[in-house]
Amino acid sequence: MVHPQILASIVIIGLIGNVCRAFPYPGLESFSHIGLDRQGQEIDYKDYPKYDFSYGVNDPHTGDIKNQHEERDGDFVKGSYSLHEADGTVRIVDYTADKFNGFNAKVYKSGVAKRPFGKSLYHH
Length: 124
Prior knowledge:
Layout: H1 4-22, E1 50-59, E2 64-73, E3 76-84, E4 90-98, E5 102-110
Antiparallel strand pairs: 1-2, 2-3, 3-4, 4-5
């Protein structure tokens, strides 16, 4: 036989679940409502995608120095990013992407690689 306290706990949890379903949290909807606005009309998600953004990080304490720029116009995306490598060089990547040619990148390096100072790991 089930202990009365366990049975009471199960009943209370079930009742709480029914109350929560009756008063849904704003913004949470079931998947059956995706694509419909509040009046039952379908929402068109085929807006023309267009954006342009840039960002950069310059933290000399950690050596994290990088930049990125990207822009999109419809199905065409182009951008570039650069970052300072541990060897002192700078890697620069220019890229484009579209539905006909896919993703294409050109990678460049500038500067001269420097050997880090410190003890050698190999002893002969």
